[in-house]
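Hi there, hope your week has been kind to you so far. No rush at all, and the record is pasted right below.
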Amino acid sequence: MQWLLSRGRWPFLFLVGAITLFLGYHCLQLKVDRDNRSMDADNEAQKAIEAEFEELFGERDSILVAIYRENPGSDSSGDLLGEIVAKLREIDGIEKIIRPAATGSELAESQRGLLISENKSMVGLRLLLAPLDDEGEQLSHLIEEVKSIAASYTGEDIRVAVTGLPVQKFEVGELLRRDQKMFAPLSLLVLGLVLVVVTRRFSGMGFPLLVSVITICWTLGVYALFENTLNVITSLLPPVIMTISVATTIHIYLDWLHGTEADPRKRILKAVKNLYRPCLFASLTTAIGFLSLLLSETPAVRLFGLFAALGVGVSFFLGVVGIAVGLSFLKPPRNGVGKGPLDHLGAAHRMLDRVAEMTVNHPRKIIFGALLVGALGVIGAKQVETDTDLLHFLGPDHPLREDTELIDDHLAGISTIELFLKQTDGDAIESSKALADLQDRLRSVPHVRKVFGFPDLLPELAVTAEQSGVPLSEILTRIDAEPYLSETRTAARISVFTDSIGTREGKDLVKEVVELAGEVLGKGFAVHPVGEFYRVIGGITVEELSCRPCFDSRGDWDRVSLHRLRASCDHPECGPPASRRSHDGVCRNRS
């Protein structure tokens, strides 16, 4: 330390400057995770289930575009819809567009409200997104292009609304990043003013703030070197590091400021000797607290804990060694001799003195009080519930919230729990009755707006034929149930459309839905909740439910009924029998 305070000062400053420039460059190259993938829980088993679900049913993250007309019959909605679809197809990153088959035809009861509202004033387009491999920049451009197209068609009697969980996550992330750009400098300003008031010296403000800035630069520079991107959680690193990095520096600075040694170097060494052990202990406990976040299943939380701990270590090093070198360039003040570091604060100082005296004179009372507060804290912590609501996080006048609420008023909405049902014995599903019964039960569950599954794809003739004993395998030879029934018929999917609710109510709803599936189906099925909304909820461990086999086939197919069923399946806008229909009574664009 003696060498650092004399001949080693300039080499040390040169080394710190070089490291700061190097890491600062990488800090400026830091990218932003715009789709917040690292916010998803790192659950390999669930990821495998999601991958199997996507492979079987071709499901992807999606964006919903809805065209709303106050007077739906005032103009040709088909031409407008086709024009918007044509422009959306040109956007890179959209894999498929699901659109209504015919806005003018009569829809089955089960299909109303999915992509066409009851009064036909709103028509929806579901954009299935292709897998994106970048840090969300492509998704960002895609969302901006979709919003631009929507804005270009919005007028006096037409409104084109855009929503979806990818849009909501993107918008929330953008708002947080915008706020941090404003509040980070503001926090630096407030911190600087407080330091000036406490120390009454510009050096008392400059040294701690300089340590904070360098600590942030080093931490984020190392973060960028490992090719990490900033997300909603890790973007909180700068304000957190800014706060904790001041502690060591200000303690050593105040001890030096009000020291009694006349010799400058001895004064610095005494301040460091007095405080480096307690500061080290405080830094270690803080770092251990952050490192405990490594136990989280969410990658973003683990990254935050790891690099916050790194920031604590860097701030301790700079707060002890860096401040000592910096103080060696200053002349110790004479007017601080014999005075306490906070004497000038008057009433505040006297209050702090009384607290200090109480901790020394009444240790048992302090320990008892601390234990009591700790116990109350534990009890209170158990009552804390996480409730992430991406929609209501936005203000009531935010365009995305207005668009989402408008769509929720007319269509089934965007919050969907997908039930992935797999036959555990590997046999094919031979009856739709059990799944139809489950869907009927699910429709009565609170917060459930709409339920759709492959039984809803069966025309009335097919249902009648199945009830009379015709095998389901023969019925499905002419009906495309691919979006809701696997090709081998060993797995099925039920979409449960819900209200726009937060994760707390969402978790309860998922549990109720899965328990109801087990009750209705019995044994023989594994029930997995999947999908975008379930990933937002996250963190639920739902045991696979086994249900008894309840599917059997009986009798022979009525050939006349089969012929009538085939004839009734040719939708006017779906084209020839080979055309496929989606779960919404819609055509799949396969351009």
Observations:
- The radius of gyration is 32 Å.
- The chain is about 50% helix and 10% strand.
